[in-house]
Prior knowledge:
It is a single chain. The chain has 296 residues and is α+β, with helices and mostly antiparallel strands. It is built from ten helices and nine strands. Strand 7 and strand 8 form a beta hairpin. The longest helix has 33 residues, at 262-294.
Amino acid sequence: MAARSFKNLTYSKKKSQRRVDKPSSSSTTDVANQMENLSISKSKKKVHPEQLYQSQVLASKRFFALSKPGVYAMADCEKSGVLTKGYCLVESKLFFNNHDNGHSACSVNLLLCSCNFENCNRLRALSEYVEDGTFMDFVRNEEEEYCVHRRVLKKLPCFKELENEDEESEPDEDVVDQLSVDPLLVAVLVDDEYGLVQGAPKLKLKLKCLTCAHGISRCDHVTTYRSWTKRNNISLETQLHSEPRSKFASVSYKRIPFPLPAALQEKYNDMELFIGLLIFYVKIKFMRLLLTLLFI
């Protein structure tokens, strides 16, 4: 009897140990959910702002090569890479290493962007000839400071390396590149520098410059564009017409068969006859009234 009780005691202990060691179904479900959430978070990788900007510029096709070689207009973006309504101007400038008493051994394209006016004006003011010993360091330092516009532009299909012959060629006076019709956006070249002029119907003067910092409605780019439109007999009001056009939609809730069945043809023929007789009757009444007034 004592042996049996001892066996039952040991069996119950083992059974209880099994119950303790076995995990509950709720805890198993929680662990599975945590693992699934972890795998989802790993799969959802954040897109880099530069990659997002490049994909959106390509999808929207808001990048343009202007008439002057080496100058481009492209959509601006936020820090996240999402496009904004603004634009940036990016231009190329050739720099040469000053080698063997002025003879250039090689040249490099450096890009200037209007998003940083100070840096842009500094590179414009620099001589294109750089001392041979510091040339590569100069190029490396400048390229490391490239903004997202310049980095993305080099990957776009419109980008082309500037050559020495392109830089020497001068475009005609009053160059105007139309980039967009609705809304109006044009690139105007004045004194070898571009400015982006946009239509602004809400403003008094209807135009504004996106490039100049001051006098955006009366700067040289806006004035040049106004005179250009007059010389070419282009109506500025027509260019700035940005009211939404009427969109026609069907008001019929049933499909109309074509060609019309005989019953519908007869119905509409009777309607045309009725309208014609009504117009004829109105004309006779009007003529009688007119004759009455003349002979009174």
